[in-house]
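Re: beginner question about structure tokens

> Can someone show what the tokenized structure looks like for a real chain? I only ever see the sequence side.

Sure, here's an example I had lying around. Input first:
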Amino acid sequence: MGAEIIYGKDLAAELRLEMKEEVKKLAEKGIIPGLTVVLIGDDPASQSYVKGKQKASDEVGVDSNLIKLPDTTSQQELLNLIGDLNTDENIHGILVQLPLPDHIEEQAVIEAISPEKDVDGFHPINIGRMLTGEDTFYPCTPFGILTMLKSKNIEIAGKHAVVVGRSNIVGKPVGQLLLNEHATVTYCHSRTKDMKKYTTEADILIVAVGKQHFIKAEDIKPGAVVIDVGVNRMENGKLTGDVDFEAASEKASYITPVPRGVGPMTITMLLHNTIKSAKQHHQLSF
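And the corresponding structure tokens:
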């Protein structure tokens, strides 16, 4: 049989076409959604992400601006910059690319960004709004995953969703978004005993641990929906996920590939949040 593959890349392309139209409507009103990305240091992975964000922004017409700072930048200098960006009327989204150099406290930076411009969805106020089921900026990767599930009309309410991984960026918020959609959610992590017991009970299995082929076919319930968030580089240089794709796709009903799966959705939801922020700032709804 084999699973149906959910290509995030294709869905992202469709959504960006819709966003392009939305940005055109805003431009007619003299509004250009503005996103500022702050990159500190020369981390190659971060530089690659930022390039992707820039390209996607250009594609939909979001005005994306990159501020590059040396890794000697002090925490106070960064906080001062964020303060200036918070008050800039032309900027609707602020994103500080993580990870940060060791001498800068990540949480202090996240909390310095105005919740109204926190298009990454990591500010405690936005996380709190998500927890209480209010409309807010959702973290981009979890929001992308939810959008992928809904694009295939996969039923979430009443289903058992198992999330492997508990990071603040993916694991915790994706579980919360699924709970908001009335799933029963179990979190598994490095201290979970007998993880297979849980993963084989999952109707929806989301894996975000950053370990190559951590989940094998025998860890999956037949007919489960498998979402692979991991990106790992193999010895041959190719990318692969946290799930053994070939074997798992024989058992699952739906599965996401790596690459071309969840990744393209993350940047797309960032653009969605930036456009939403521009609309909210100008009190528009369409």
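Each token stands for a local structural state, so reading them left to right follows the chain. The chain has ten helices and eleven strands.
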